[in-house]
Structures
1.
Amino acid sequence: MKERRSRALTAALLAPAAMFFVFLLLVPLVVVLVFSFGVRGPAGGYQAGFTFDNYLNLAARGKAFYNTLTLAPLATLLTALFAFPMAYFLALKANPKYRVALLVLVMAPFWTSQLLRYYAWIMLLGNKGIPSWLAWIGIHDVRIINTPVAVLIGAVYGFLPLMVPPIYVSLEKLDKRLLEASADLGATPVRTFFQVTLPLALPGVAMGSMLVFILLMGDYILPQFLGGGKVFFIGNALVDLFLQSRNWPFGAAVSVALVAIMFVTIYFYMRFVLSKTDTRRAALV
Amino acid sequence: MRIYAILIYIFLYAPIALIVGFSFNAGKYAMDWQGFSVEWYAKAFSNPLIMEALRTSVFIAFSTALLSAIIGTLTALGLERVSGWLRTAFDALIYVAIMVPGIVIGISTLIAFVSFFDLVNPWLTSAWSIKLEMGAWAVIAAHVLFNIAVVALLVRARLQGMDRSLVEASEDLYATPLGTFRQVVLPLLAPAILAGFLLAFTFSFEDFIIAYFVAGPNTTLPIYVFSSIRRGVTPEINAVGTVVLMTSFALLIVAQLILQRGQKTAR
Amino acid sequence: MTKTPGHISPQKFLDELRRFQKGSVTRRHFLGVTGLGLATAVIGGAVPGLRPRKSYAALSGTLNFTTWPNYFSQENLDNFTKQTGVTINVNVFGSNEEMLAKLQAGSTGWDVFVPTNYTISTYKQLDLIEPLDLKLMPNYDEKSQDPRFLGPGTIDGTVYAVPKDWGTTGFIVNTKEVSQNPASWKEFFELAQGPLSGKVMVHDYQLTTIGSAAKALGYSFNTIDPKELAEVEKLLIATKPHLFGINSDYQPSMRNGDATMAMCWTNDAAQLHRDIPDMKYVLGKDGGEIWVDHYAVVKGAPNREAAYAFIDYILTPEINAKEIQAHGTPSTDARCLKLLPKEMLENPILYPAAEQLSALEYGAAETLTSPARAELMARFKSA
């Protein structure tokens, strides 16, 4: 009797999420997979069919895959490097009274339109912004806007507010006594950091990086705004395919390829992270 | 360390200062300073398109955050109670939901919904003369999908770090399961749930690409801003951005005050 | 109320009254047909604030109107809502492809939208727009329209869309920064690759970008010939490293000096020139594009009655004139032109000389939907 009730409770807890996953994730992904084998209708859109042409044609977007697969990981790494000290400061050094407020202050820029903030960066990186200040101190003819560098700056700027909270959450759990113990046992601060703090923060870093990496891999706005149409990501290719040339089957094939790449990358990434955290944890105990 | 934090805040807020500054621009174009004026605030508030877009966005973001926080937490709790294939399957689904880029979520949701509507609409129309269409609800559904996974992961991370002896102690003291949950588990999970709620709200409020595909006739604030950026931003948009920022700061201060008061009474 | 019947039989009057009461005709139709409108108009004209032509009965709900940004008068929309009780939900879009893609995907809930000339036959072919019932929009007068602009909206004698306004695609030059005096697309691309490297923008729009490059090479704006397109691709890809950006939002970059020359539409040119007199709008003497935007009703529009009432309302000359003054794009309606201020009509950006226009071409339906051009654009952008 009790077990049945317990099972019913488990089912009730998991049912809502299961519904969402099945009807809004699995079914749509299967539909996309089906579409990817179809053909483009005469005026665009989708026509039923069975062909591998869309996959064979993927090389036509090779440059978009290349750009995304080089710039997205690089931008993620940069974001994590800038976010970590910030999260560390918030979780361990900041006045506990203002901790939450300071954290929300990091997230708050996200509440003004992301599009507008990128728009402001267009001005900052444009002719009358940073390049003109550089010219003033004698460095002339610097072009930032509409280059990969602009996209990287925009990525760090745009995703820092998303990278800091997960790292903060994992650091905040960190028992300060561990740090004290480590110091008492004669470890240098550097060693404490690498042997105690970092491994404990790794789940947060891993989660934040994953989130940012995923958002970057499918990003459209950032390369569109700060790349000025010259830095072409998979996201741009997809928007063009669905909203400009309306080649849905090819767009579906690009989507499937993108998802496949993400699965493989993240699978290996997670395996790497898990192996790291497990061994470190074992070494600690 | 503190200097670094200050630099980061400057980095984060310099563009925002620019947005706020130019919202007081008398000129017609966003980044072309013509003198001080507050007229764009009046214009923004009397622009029904902007107000409607703002309302839609707040509605979508709040619904998304609330639903994701609840369902995500339930999922994390439920997963503690299962093992074996079910657990593996759920874990996989959570990761898939997170891994699939928003643009693909938008595209696949659009394609699937449209195909589904084509199937059921003729029948619905003849039976009750109603018709399913894309709209705010479709945006919420697609946003919740991603955010359930985010909240579930956050809450689970917190659960894993939780001290089980507290729950056991509570049970030893003959607290009801519900009592234990409310008195012990929920307060411990609260930071993670709150973080998840904020993240979900933020993500939803900011999302352009999913809404772009599935919002149907509804216009969210990002969609509005996107289309106006294409043909020249007026300081009106800056004014809205500024108001949104100020509102979130006001809410933040209120939240902080409530938290402080809560701490005092708890003591 | 273009045609007011001189008289009406009592029987017809009663029929019309009954139809009106049942709600099957709008009050405006009723007033128009019965001639009561004329009477009301006379009285109404004498009483400020009581304007007969602004009464629409049997309308309610929301009208979903999809258009381009900065392309309507908010005041007009507000007045429509005041008079009809229909609230208007405006969706703004960036390109024709997007509108087409959204409508093709279905389930948009749109009622009225503003397609450009070359999309209308595609919409008709895909059964996405309905043939217009001109009886429901008496304020539209075909005879007052410039005949040049009537072609694209009429397919096999049936009107699917009515002209809204028209313009051209040329390029804008900041003459303060650019001493050369480019007059053709050929010179546009030569300057882009040479002296103006890093300062030139082209549209993120295959129709105009490929079309203009084709003109520079002496081909048709609408070319889909594989050999010609291959040359266009060579030209574009050779130009790409020199471009400041590929973006249809070029006003900000032109204004702040990041770019000094950009592919440009009439309305943007007028706005740029108005604020910065150094901005010069050039129509390539080797050709280019002329376009007309239209109003059309989406097939299966949820609020069809309001859709017609709205188009009818907006095409009333006085209201249309306000509309035109709000967004600055040239009108196609002679009645409306009479109401516009002189300086607008004499602006050569808005109304170029006839011989300049003769070199221009309409975009063709296949130009927009051609997979070859779409792929070319994708290769250009990702190169």
2.
Amino acid sequence: MGNRVAIVGIGQTYHKSARKDVNQQEMVGEAVRAALADAQMKAKDVEAVFTSNMETFEGLFLPDHLMADEIAAYMKPGLKVATGGTSGASVVEEGFHFVASGLFDTALVIGFEKQDTGDTTAAITAAVTPVWGKGVATGAIGEFAKQALTYMERSGAKEEHAAMVRLKADKGACRNPYAHLKLGLKSIKEVLDSGYLVWPLRLLDFCPQSCGACALILASESRAKKITKKPVWIADVVTVHQEPFRAGSFGDPTGTEEYSQDIAAERLYKRNGITNPMKDICMAEIYEPSNWEEMSHYEHYHFCEKGEGWKLVEKGITEMEGAFPVNPSGGVIATNPIGGTPTIRVAEAALQVRGDAGEHQVTRDVHTAVATALGGPNWTVMTLLRRSL
Amino acid sequence: MTTEKTAEKKPEYLKVEIARPRSYKWSSGKYLGKLYKEALEKKKLVTNRCPKCKQLMWPPMAVCGRCNVATGEDWVEMSDTGTVVQYTYLVFPLWDPHYGDRLANPYPTATIKLDNGVFLVHFLEEKDPEKLKKVKRVQAVWKEEGRGRGLADILCFRTIEE
């Protein structure tokens, strides 16, 4: 292992479907200034800047070139990553690797997407390879619809369980000042009454397209201790990329394929002495594009046995006040600026470890948290955070 | 953390619209090109086979990553009949920005396992949600005109009784 790395500054923008008042670089600058203010640092204190964005989704070429001034990157080293849905976690991993290597003492990592610039679903539909059904694919929604159907058939979960996950997310989002959709949902019926997007996925079952950005400042151990009294240590990051399921991108109706989540979880837990994830980890911020996917992920991240994810929901274990809170921020289903979405997972998990999540701080004490990311097809990044190493 | 409320300052801004068609050329490559050519000229689906593990490559390609060998020209004609393993249908209308087609309700798509074991995603001809539940065996319906788009040369998959 390399040098120890801590998160010392956290900043987000608020999120909306459209931010017509700012251009992309101005929007990202808001998150950067918030992170610098949180760390009480100045732009000159940042040695390198790494960004994450799926530029094909917005149709804007090389966005990072336009924003060097706004993001404290003027005349500094840095890279941009685009690994699909996982981009915002890959950029945290990238910063982590560079600081752990000793090349830099401080790094700024930023995830962002301004989706009022382009149509993401149209971009995914158009940019998919012709062999895998250009025009047949209905963006990410169609794939997650099939995932939902597969999960229903395999686990016996009912639509009511998915609705309960949606209510839990909305409760968190309503308490989170940075969340996008704050719907004030009150009943399961409200969720089940929303119209279908792609059967059996309903409007309220799926994540929105958001504009927003999230920035984190990472620092080496010696610098971190000078910058803040509450560093959040990045204990480990695991990435598992694989080819698409032959039978589907996210859910496997044949029951014969390996899930990258399972492999990532096994690797992360083994490397970090975690034998009982539900006990050794205090909470999780997971990447759930749909409420159905959240229940499936409980199983593939080994929070429970296979086929039992919906039981955690039924028992309220993953509620904000529960024994193992998941997505108290409201999650992806409430807020989804794609390149920034996984960065927000890490940021929100870090806020929980610091005890600084405010209205959506979970009831139990959080000394260890995990943040996950999901990318198409079936890619996984897991980030483990600790209060002390 | 603090949030800057730029929106509240209500700055003036211009909306710039750029409406211009963009042409798109896509090179199929040597191996995929064969699939396109056979579909265009003979209404057939073909792929190549790994000389080592003998698995069908899908789509046809130059290298088998599992065995790390060049695949070569061992071409196999595939069945155009198969079994539906998962399906869904679009309710919310979408459009296809590449071909300009509007994708409207119900627009059923399915993951189909062809009889030689290869999976592909395609449309179903059946559009009744109740009848969709029972669709199992299907066969490709080839387009008579306008072929040259690879798998899109198949119009849809039609239910067959066996």
